[in-house]
Amino acid sequence: MDKKKSLVVIAAHTGDYVWRCAGAIALHAELGWRVSVICLSYGERGEAAKLFAEPGMTQPRAREMRKIEAEKAAKVLGADIHFFDGDDYCLHTDEAMLDRAVAILRDLQADVILTHTRDDPGNIDHEVAARFALEARMSSQAVGRSGGTAIGAPHLHGMTIGAPQVYSFEPHQSELCSFKPDTLLDITSVWEKKWAAIQCIPSQPLMWDYYRNMAIQRGAVARGRPKYAEAFQRLFPSTVNELPT
Amino acid sequence: MDKKKSLVVIAAHTGDYVWRCAGAIALHAELGWRVSVICLSYGERGEAAKLFAEPGMTQPRAREMRKIEAEKAAKVLGADIHFFDGDDYCLHTDEAMLDRAVAILRDLQADVILTHTRDDPGNIDHEVAARFALEARMSSQAVGRSGGTAIGAPHLHGMTIGAPQVYSFEPHQSELCSFKPDTLLDITSVWEKKWAAIQCIPSQPLMWDYYRNMAIQRGAVARGRPKYAEAFQRLFPSTVNELPT
Amino acid sequence: MDKKKSLVVIAAHTGDYVWRCAGAIALHAELGWRVSVICLSYGERGEAAKLFAEPGMTQPRAREMRKIEAEKAAKVLGADIHFFDGDDYCLHTDEAMLDRAVAILRDLQADVILTHTRDDPGNIDHEVAARFALEARMSSQAVGRSGGTAIGAPHLHGMTIGAPQVYSFEPHQSELCSFKPDTLLDITSVWEKKWAAIQCIPSQPLMWDYYRNMAIQRGAVARGRPKYAEAFQRLFPSTVNELPT
Amino acid sequence: MDKKKSLVVIAAHTGDYVWRCAGAIALHAELGWRVSVICLSYGERGEAAKLFAEPGMTQPRAREMRKIEAEKAAKVLGADIHFFDGDDYCLHTDEAMLDRAVAILRDLQADVILTHTRDDPGNIDHEVAARFALEARMSSQAVGRSGGTAIGAPHLHGMTIGAPQVYSFEPHQSELCSFKPDTLLDITSVWEKKWAAIQCIPSQPLMWDYYRNMAIQRGAVARGRPKYAEAFQRLFPSTVNELPT
Amino acid sequence: MDKKKSLVVIAAHTGDYVWRCAGAIALHAELGWRVSVICLSYGERGEAAKLFAEPGMTQPRAREMRKIEAEKAAKVLGADIHFFDGDDYCLHTDEAMLDRAVAILRDLQADVILTHTRDDPGNIDHEVAARFALEARMSSQAVGRSGGTAIGAPHLHGMTIGAPQVYSFEPHQSELCSFKPDTLLDITSVWEKKWAAIQCIPSQPLMWDYYRNMAIQRGAVARGRPKYAEAFQRLFPSTVNELPT
Amino acid sequence: MDKKKSLVVIAAHTGDYVWRCAGAIALHAELGWRVSVICLSYGERGEAAKLFAEPGMTQPRAREMRKIEAEKAAKVLGADIHFFDGDDYCLHTDEAMLDRAVAILRDLQADVILTHTRDDPGNIDHEVAARFALEARMSSQAVGRSGGTAIGAPHLHGMTIGAPQVYSFEPHQSELCSFKPDTLLDITSVWEKKWAAIQCIPSQPLMWDYYRNMAIQRGAVARGRPKYAEAFQRLFPSTVNELPT
User: Fold this and answer.
1) Cβ–Cβ below 8 Å for A118 and B121
2) Which residues of chain E does A164 touch, with a Cβ-Cβ cutoff of 8 Å?
3) Backbone torsions φ then ψ of E80, nearest 5 degrees
4) pTM of the model
5) Interchain CB distance below 8 Å, C237 and F222
6) ipTM over the 0.90 cut-off
7) Chain A: nearest CA to B58, how far in angstroms?
8) What residue in F sits closest to A206 (Cα-Cα)?
9) pLDDT of B128-164, one tens digit each?
């Protein structure tokens, strides 16, 4: 098939995709995949303390600044980005957001979805986003549900997609979220892009070194000891024709 | 007590109860239990691809056809069936649906509830249904909640029920859903009925052989090697007067 | 800092806090902590069968009686109590309730939150309350979310709080709820207060001995074999300067 | 089949069977089952502190006293008892002990085995005993392994047994041992015998009240609220012809 | 590197590798991998009931027949086979067996090891074999431990190997063994070989259909619905340069 | 009691205690605790590849060098060190080693034991050591088991100890070992000592940065964001008189 492969990231807040899977995004974009990022919220209430330290900051302005940061980072990484305009802390999703996600997943004929872990007691927004990703995935497979431009049952509905693999990306504290990585992605070749994307998010400065160190630590236990790696956990079995070593 | 024992199945889509517990239904009906099936949705969006392959298919028509299929199967098995008219992919439940379920559980004085596993990442509707079943169970026990014809606190409310046992029936991929069967039900004597019920659902032909094979496999590991068995997992301890062998 | 330490209990029904953590409440109140209890519902539908056995009982009256019981118990224990007026069996929470909880957590600058286990298949209200507690906790930390009188980003929002530790208190059947206690609190010195508080809840007489026995059993496995103990499980790692023995 | 049903208990130390399943033993003996208890060790090193408080106590004498206690308790309960003479703290098992266990399981054609949980970090002897029980069970099923008087492949070996159900009995702290009870046995009718058996073990006085309370607590959550119950967890699925309520 | 890739199977009994990974063996042999099978025992005591039904059967003769069966099956599949001559039911491993396994893993510079699940309460031999496989793996990595012909620290010891991936193959009852497959291997192209290998083991006729059905069921849930598949679970993360879809 | 508190580390190889808990050792030594380290083996076979790269290296010489390294590190940290002379890759423990450990635990009246996680599929020696630590702990509590100089039942045996808390220290890959930290120890004040101890182990240079980064990462999620922290998981509940915040 000569369709481009595609990767869709579904994240709760604008920063999440940068810390946790910017390497995967940049790498797959370079490999020729189409990559789209869905930010369910701007995270301006819960993840932008630094912005509110500025005099005169308002919530709308914080949202706008967070959006600009995220757009900049996506551009660096070679991804499209979609803002679903939800409110954070606490995030709620609805039918209209689901429709948008279905359309995106179908338009791209998503092969892989990256999202949060289902368990994250310290950040329920992440749990909401992970569940939303699974709802969007199953809805995209539903022949009788409309949505998306790639029309499949043309007299009626949009084309469905198959069953894309879903990976959890690494949460802030893996063990708290029952995250057990089974896939380490060597991101050394795109590290500079990830670091540049990270620097697009000045509103969360404490994250910078933390996620650089995390990439170094994951690299140190990956085969071949790459300098930087990201960790993922798949939710569904993968089908293979040869056992990966 | 000479009340008939009763079994209530609470499932997300019309097909679910057939693949996963038609044997239990037929067997307990033959044993003299009252059996009622609650279908929270028709599953016409997500589980009826074959219907939408027919020219001119519409969603209302697909619903109707799914309903007819399910009624036919229930009749074969000897069960009542209730349609709660929810939408599938994604299923949402509400207070009115809960009221209906409470009334059914109380009217039948349910002894056993069969439902989905609480975890099912590939099909969130199943998770919604399992949670709904637990909500309905606890609500049926609540003296101060009205509903049902068997009036218990007659000046005010319906009769409550005790704490019926809940079993998860077998999901499509057991390990993905953390399903660990603890009860294997020999359904050999009612296999012909299950097979006939399965054949009432032509809209999902791929399921036929899969669930026949599953019954054979579960039989092969059950005591006495019955030809067909269904697997279940109880959610609550059972109280006994002698240890089951 | 000479701020008083504070403990906030977030429970589904009015009785829950008494059975499960009245000892912790009384003990910390005596130790000089501020203690507040949030009852999300009165539990009058599902946990007051005895009240409905009285002729002429109505739901509003049952609510009122449950409220009075709970206030009395809180007074005995030395805690404030807040009623959030939700309906039980099944409990639903909303944005307004969340706002109230955020304000309380911030006003008290909560150090510790006690709530239900996240899993409780026999009582979904408890799961709802546990999730709500985690939503409230994260929302209280969000600089961009308003609420609470202790103004932090004064030009705009309320003062946030740090990350309070959260403990699950002991559920009715620990193993059903995946409760694995890691902290046993010696409540011998305040047992009389707990027992007095328990006696404030005549609407649930079966609980009295059950929870006294539970306290004895937990004491019997605690270091030093205190006469009474309560069991808790922390959700987040604690930071220490010396390893607890 | 008119063979008597049979129950075999495999426990690490002489006291274990009394605290944890004396009710099951007495009840099944009354129901006409044959019941045999295997004590892998006397537990004189680790579970008889009180004996060593007596002046002049020696290890051989402590063993003897423990043996007498256990025999007395078994007699009260109506069970045979076998001492395998292992050393405790730490217990090690060997091929000869396995041969003896195989012979017993085959001679009785065991239907049910009761043993410790596989996880018990506070008492590794219990883990050793649980593993030994599973080794004995599988060895008893092996046609090509000799042992037992009931000769099956008569030209060569002993008769094998089927696959008896195995239950973990309740450990001292259930949650530490990942014990999740699925079966509550009403032992009210034999409580006096259990209490009498408990009183046969004066060397462990702290256990008496603890296990009485435990029986009361398990009863309080069993269906019908029996006065006393014991909790068990099965290791293998059971095959049934009707779903237990 | 132009070294042939290699796969080493470490199994408790001679039949195990046939039922559980004959497809993987045949497939990788066809793909040009070197494949070696280590049978720790012949399984003649516990897994050859049919042989003992023959008059005059002795244990040495049963061993010999089992060996011949296994050699035949290995030949069909294109694998070397090594017999470690352990006793089954119950299997024990020792230092000499470990030395042999280390030599094989090093000689082949194993890339992948297939073995049992670590948990298998119904067959402790399988647990012993799984643990042995992990011991052999770590020992093969130890520079200071001798063994193997490919000399690495030539003045002293054998060449070590890297960290080969380990997969659990599918146990008889997946859920009992906490087996959660993450890799489905399409074995349709080599099915005839697997079926031929299965037919080499007439001493266990009940397994034939069971494992054919299992392959069909795993195929039905694999991507692309291959006719036959085998399921595996990896124990260690894999390092990748692109996320598997 | 004015007995000094004491900490005993039980580790498989000489390096383990340095990477994983040197901070805890140094900190508690400074706090006035007695600290003893038990190294079950030198780890010269599996964890000293660099030594074997030196021409003329022999196994006895590697052992000696590893011993010297470990002694140096212990001295830096302020701990006693005991070598149990076991062989590594694979480590086996025996009764004599257990006797020595019991004597040490009793002589110090150990309050806290630090050891490996019970699960570590990549390094079975670690599992062996963790199990040994639990065996030693329970044996030390056994009144009827001799050992140790602090005589308790003076006519016969050594003084027993109470039930010391056991913590798992952080394994190389936490998630592979089911390590879920619940305790973060601020080691900033002793970091220089830990770093100095690390530098005493030139035979494993790849570990240096990895464990420095790990300490930084654990610090970043600890309360108060200390510069360096170590993570631990307790195995048994702790008894408290006030809930830790």
Assistant:
1) yes
2) 245
3) -75, 155
4) 0.96
5) yes
6) yes
7) 7
8) F220
9) 999 999 999 999 999 888 776 433 444 444 577 889 9
